[in-house]
Design goal:
Blueprint: H1 2-35, H2 39-68, H3 72-86, H4 88-104, H5 116-121, E1 124-126, E2 136-138, H6 144-149, H7 156-165, H8 171-199, H9 206-226, H10 231-251, H11 255-268, H12 271-283, H13 288-301, H14 305-314, H15 326-332
Antiparallel strand pairs: 1-2
Amino acid sequence: MYIDYMRYIKIDYMRYIKLLLVILLETTGLHMLIKHSTVFGFTTYLFFHLTASLLLATMVAWILKTFYKYPYMHALILSFSIFFFLGPFAVSLGVISVLIYTKISKVPAPVKEVNYEIVFSVRVLSEKRRLGEGSLRFAKVEDLQRVMYFTKFYHPLTVRFFKKLLFSDNDELRLLANSYLKNAEKYLQELIYELEKVLERQDLGKDVKFFVCRALAFLNWDIYYLGFMEEQIAKKYLDNAKEYVLKALEIKEDPSLYMLMGRMELSSGDYQRAHEHFKRALDLGMEPVKVLPYLLEALYKLRNFKELKQVSEKYRGTYSVNPKRMALISAWV
């Protein structure tokens, strides 16, 4: 979801601030050591170097934990030892490594570690088969620990689940559900408000304006898609999302925006326009694995079975079955 992407942008911004602080601490310590060749100068340098090494080690340990599942404390101790005992050279290499890694790494998934024991302990029921993005629902859950785990997720399934919990006889579950729904909606609304204030500025460059319009399109779509509000109110956010997509496309064509527009038209029932947008997203380089489910659904709704078969044959082998997904597949079949 775009809400998780915006959180990652904030994390990325803070990482650059920390790197600047590391550089400042290390250079200040070296300056004091060179200027004062005394015990005071050496002690001052050790203090600044220790602080810089510890701060840099926390960033490296976070990267190792997030992307490679390396234990955080082990990574922290190892990184700190390397940076502190090998001196300014190691710190410089560490800063360069973090900078390079943040440029080439992908956005992490919103939930890094999935507790499968909790997930599988919650029985999932399938409703009447229908097309769309899923027809699953949770069975009744009364275990507070299990319910709290699902507050990590932002998805229509979890929103519907917590909406039902608002009518639970359990006071704790009702309060938790209300907190989840209120805080998630508030967070999205605050992001939209902040970006709309940015968009009002007259000195925005094209690239910044494109990014802001694109972000606003996805955030408004998230509010509609997640289902926080009633349909009549939610439609306003769908219209806003379409408006921001068009504004962004006036500046630059982007496959993700055509993909988003296709999903919006699909939810509105305009299958022909949805089909056109999905095709355009593919033409501009969108990964087929992301587009195909929606494109095939649009073709099915249009009863265009000839093209549906052609597309299926063209992209045969795009998907491979993961054993962990067999439970979900069995619920659909």
